[in-house]
Amino acid sequence: MMEMLAVQVEAPGGITSLVVRSVEDLTPRPDEVKIELIASSINPADVKIRTGAVVPLRGAYPFTLGYDLAGTVVETGAEVTDLAPGTQVLAMSAVALTGVGTWSERVCLPRTSVARLPANVDPLPLARLPLAGLTAYQAVQRAKPGPGTAVLVCGAAGSVGRLAVELLLDRGARVHGLVRRPEQVDQLPTHELFTPHVGQPPTRSVDVVIDAAGADFSPALVDGGLYICLVPDRAPARDVLARRSQRRTVLVTEESGADLEELVELLGAAVLTLETTSIFPMKNIHAAHREFEQDGQRNVVLIREDW
Which domains does the chain have, with CATH numbers? Predict the structure, then answer.
């Protein structure tokens, strides 16, 4: 039996609950792609699974963690004919739904979840993109903003929030970005259609709220406005919103290779930007998590080298 290395959480707990261990290697199903890891990253969602705040709907402990994946195709199922071995790809695995994590030497994912990378693109920096980018992209798709649409992004300095702001500006929306601290304003775009807010959102002035922070910012909405919640357990109550004919939708980020390919194109066109990151080998997973939590849960990339 072939084996590979993976980072798993044995039971809910702190950083020391993470272990690097040998697990059984994988064989792709007919519609799947087997990918060798180049790099992944740490997301707040990984911390929620590690601590037990979220338990994946499928599988059982020990779970392999990891949502993001930049890697190289090593094998495909019989139904996959358009990705040859050696192709570099990008993907997101929705661990909370599937129980399939990406912090392992090799990962099998559905072809529809996998994006082909252009030949001239370095995959390592893109390891921060999949979950944050797909969440921002799908939130903006749901908002359906047109030129002049007023949108408040809460948590605008976070990985998801920054990308949502850039996507909205590209569509001509008037964007308000809410952050907690004055120094976070420096992390936000400078644009004639962008207005930063520190601590306090505007009142009854926006058509859409995209909430990546997890609090009730519905007073910012105009009557009849749309509230898009990216933190499912922190969504405002529907009956409260209904008093002003406001609507609520809770976004659960979906795996999508097609959406990822669009995001990579937007990066290439400089519509989107990615922050600089700290890089750790997988064997230093404890140090990587400490850095992630000390840095406000952002900007840590894990690479396969030196397991």
Answer: 3-128+275-303 (3.90.180.10), 132-250 (3.40.50.720)
